[in-house]
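hiii so um. not sure if this is the right channel but i have a protein structure encoded as tokens and i wanna go backwards to a sequence. like what aa goes where. can anyone help
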């Protein structure tokens, strides 16, 4: 009887030590925080189109990174707005566009695929760093036809990047809404459009 009580006590002690050590290690290694940040952006006239150039820093949170490496594709969106500046009236949105990219990890080939869902173009990368670096470098992306704009008016442009959960089922989107690790979105980056 005493041996049985000692054995039960030792089992509880082992379980307690295991639980304590796992809680302590999870507190020592917090989940990696993610963020999206726009470092620079501009638009220049090329023939008849204004084209966007931008540099972004995209850091995935721990939960999002785990999902990606478990073969869950991620959708990253870039929202661009061209706004007419008016003097005595509220500013007027002339164009509002969303450029959609998909980031996917393929475990068998150990490659990261970046796909432009607007054009269908895709690139393959051996590292996550290379894939995110590619996503964070926007070059000569056509945004708006110059003939749509009034040469006597002033315009401002704004850009934002965000991780979208629209492609997931509604129940999963609701869970992501409450998980801060999935709320990756940059601030709006604004500048005046130069002629």
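sure thing!! here u go:
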């Amino acid at each position: 009887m005493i041996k049985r009580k000692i054995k039960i006590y030792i089992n509880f002690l082992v379980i307690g030590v295991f639980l304590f050590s796992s809680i302590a290690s999870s507190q020592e290694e917090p989940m990696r925080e993610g963020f999206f940040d726009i470092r620079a952006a501009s638009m220049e006239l090329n023939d008849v189109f204004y084209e966007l150039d931008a540099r972004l820093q995209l850091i995935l949170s721990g939960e999002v990174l785990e999902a990606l490496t478990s073969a869950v594709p991620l959708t990253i969106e870039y929202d661009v707005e061209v706004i007419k500046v008016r003097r005595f009236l509220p500013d007027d949105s002339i164009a509002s566009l969303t450029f959609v990219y998909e980031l996917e990890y393929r475990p068998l080939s150990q490659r990261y695929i970046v796909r432009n869902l607007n054009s269908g173009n895709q690139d393959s990368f051996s590292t996550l760093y290379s894939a995110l670096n590619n996503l964070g470098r926007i070059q000569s992306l056509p945004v708006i036809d110059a003939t749509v704009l009034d040469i006597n008016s002033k315009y401002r442009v704004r850009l934002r990047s965000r991780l979208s959960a629209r492609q997931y089922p509604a129940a999963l989107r609701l869970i992501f809404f409450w998980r801060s690790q999935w709320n990756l979105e940059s601030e709006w980056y604004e500048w005046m459009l130069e002629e």
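oh and The radius of gyration is 24 Å.
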